[in-house]
């Protein structure tokens, strides 16, 4: 009589192959009870085994990504300074700056506390000094650009009403 060949029991497999099979079965949704039966483990050991293998997998992934990330960074720098497309250079440069911690949205958050007390007239004068009369008047709503020229609104305002916004109706000659 011929003996049947026995298949090796899971405990006879090499640890690495067994761990790989455990990870694959767990990832495919096998229950803890099924894993315990298949791998001859207590159900309480299954949770511990899952955590151990998860840490090993994470360690391996981080190791591989560490190698790849250096190559990726070199590629990004090459694109930022050597790509033919201006759009590609812009995106790569922006990404490098973002990763270095220089995000535009964070840099533009500038808080200014002005403790000086100034009158509206003083503020208007400072704006005219800094930006020029035409630009300051447009910022304050006292002038508009119509057909490429600045049309003043100040003439239609009552005297002394310096910061209140007004609506200007251009003369018919300005519309043509």
Q: Please, could you describe this protein's structure?
A:
The chain is mainly α and 176 residues long. It has two domains: 10-106, no CATH class; 120-167, no CATH class. Helices cover 57% and strands 5% of the residues. A hairpin with a 2-residue loop joins strand 1 (143-146) and strand 2 (149-152). The termini are far apart. Residues 153-176 have low confidence and may be disordered.
In a few lines, what is going on in this structure?
The protein is built from 8 helices and 2 strands. It has 176 residues and is mainly alpha-helical.
What is the mean pLDDT?
74
Oligomer: single chain
Gross geometry = elongated
Report strand order across the widest sheet.
Answer: 1-2
Number of strands: 2
Give the biggest sheet. Answer: 2 strands, antiparallel
Overall number of domains: 2
Radius of gyration over C-alpha positions, nearest whole angstrom: 36 Å
Proportion of helical residues:
55-70%
Structure class: mainly alpha
What's the topology here?
Elements: H1 15-27, H2 32-38, H3 43-82, H4 86-99, H5 104-107, H6 120-131, H7 133-139, E1 143-146, E2 149-152, H8 172-175
Antiparallel strand pairs: 1-2
Q: What labels describe this entry?
A:
176 residues; disordered C terminus; two-stranded antiparallel ribbon; 2 domains
């Amino acid at each position: 009589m011929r003996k049947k060949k026995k298949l090796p029991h899971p405990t006879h497999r090499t640890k690495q192959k067994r761990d790989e099979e455990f990870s694959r079965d767990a990832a495919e949704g096998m229950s803890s009870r099924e894993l315990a039966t298949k791998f001859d483990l207590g159900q309480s050991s299954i949770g511990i085994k899952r955590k151990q293998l998860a840490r090993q997998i994470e360690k391996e992934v981080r190791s591989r990504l560490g190698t790849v990330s250096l190559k990726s960074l070199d590629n990004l720098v090459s694109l930022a300074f050597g790509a033919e497309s201006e759009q590609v250079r812009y995106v790569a440069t922006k990404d490098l700056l973002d990763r270095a911690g220089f995000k535009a949205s964070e840099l533009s958050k500038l808080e200014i506390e002005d403790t000086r007390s100034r009158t509206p007239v003083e503020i208007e004068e400072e704006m005219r000094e800094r930006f020029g009369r035409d630009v300051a008047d447009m910022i304050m709503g006292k002038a508009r650009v119509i057909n490429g020229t600045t049309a003043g609104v100040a003439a239609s305002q009552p005297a002394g009403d310096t910061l209140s916004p007004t609506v200007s109706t251009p003369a018919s000659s300005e519309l043509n």
